[in-house]
Amino acid sequence: MKSIFILDDDQDLCWVMSELLLSLGASDCICANSVKELKALGTQFKFDVAILDINLGDNEPSGVEAYKWLIQNKFQGKIVFFSGHAKLHPLVQNAIKFPNVSFMEKPSPIENLKALIT
Amino acid sequence: MIKIPNILKPGQDRYVSWNLIFVVCTLVIISQLSILTKAIDFSLSNKMIVARGTHLALGIIVLIYIFFKKKNWNSEFANVLFVILYIPFYYLSWHLNVEAAASTQLWIPFQNLHFHLFALVILVPGSYLINFILIVGFAIEALILWLYLDLPHLPNVILFTEPIFTFLYVVVAIALLWFRYRDEQTIQRLSLEHAKAEVLETLARIFLSIRDKSNTPLQTLKISIDLLKMKRPLDDHTISVLENSVNRLSFLSDILKMSEEKMEFNGEELMTDEEILQWIKR
After folding, report:
1. How far apart (Å, rounded) are the C-alpha atoms in residues B278 and A68?
2. ipTM (interface pTM)
3. Which candidate from A19, A84, A85 shows the least CB-CB separation from B227?
4. Do A10 and B216 touch (CB under 8 A)?
């Protein structure tokens, strides 16, 4: 089973997603609320799937910055952008133009989340 | 918080109306000054010197007055000033033609009227109706002069283009004035529609920002319900109630999502959701 990393500034969402994914069989699930917390994980970052919220708060580095950091640090896993904005929103359009990323729109049905760990 | 801007009716633009009254004052001053100083070759009777001098003084007084009133300018008052400045032209025009007819010099009648008809089409500081009435007034004056002076039988009058020429001037002036009024109405209507569209777009943008911000807690609720189903499967009714409410919220969110697909985002001017919500709270 897969290990999951979740980046979202909403702590409640982080917690429930982590609980759900672990209940569905994920081997591990770590959360961070900001890019700063992500970078603090450093070389410990070894996950199969990274779920990145795009908008992490006003004046905070976005999920796109997190993507760039992961790529710089040679992350090999699957990257999924996760956002409350619709796919046509400019923030989302800017994010999904990067190679090898997928996008999930909030709120996403449980089946989509289950598909991430299988 | 958000209201449709007050789109001005034709003739209500205070800056345009002030500028046009300024132009009319300047025209009155320059024309009367030119005639009084004999820069234009006119033979003036004493009565006309007094009349033109009074009109010149009126132009100067109004010019000074409008500079004092500039900051508190009232576009409605422009109508009154325009009429005050233009009415004396009827008197001056009448006596100009009467005195010319009484002289022995050859003259072509109504030349000055043609200029006034042209000016009344161009200079509309207030109501188009007032300019229309003034144009009709000059037409009536021309007709009365034609009959009163018996122009066809005067020996010193050159009439090869009259009265057709003046009649055409009046018709064309009225037509041009009508087209100008109709164009301004069209512009006003389009401006109003554009303003309404901008307001609606702003409202849509606000609703979509609120929707986008609500998607995260909605996701939290949905996952929480799924967790409850897994962990406490016997609590069916409570879970069912929660699920129904969340589904209704999702339905509302989906309705707004359909409008988001119709939005055109301009990336350069895009405010963040936080900025929009801060703006609403102001």
Report:
1. 30
2. 0.90
3. A19
4. yes
